[in-house]
Design goal:
This protein is 86% helix and 0% strand. By secondary structure, it is mainly alpha-helical.
Length: 57
């Protein structure tokens, strides 16, 4: 059905809407994986406070 709408060329607004939906559906997994990766990076990159206080003694 989507292909038939896009091939007909009659309704350009419909085709643009379908293309925007495809881009949205394609971008969401990348954004989620990037956010989870960033959270994990921040969690493991923080220096441990107990180790830094022991080094100063």
């Amino acid at each position: 059905m989507c292909r038939a709408v896009l091939e007909s060329g009659e309704d350009q607004n419909m085709a643009e809407g379908i293309n925007d939906g495809i881009v949205f559906l394609m971008a969401v997994p990348y954004i989620l994986v990037g956010a989870i990766g960033f959270i994990i990076y921040r969690k493991f990159s923080k220096p441990d406070k107990t180790e830094s206080t022991n080094q100063n003694l």
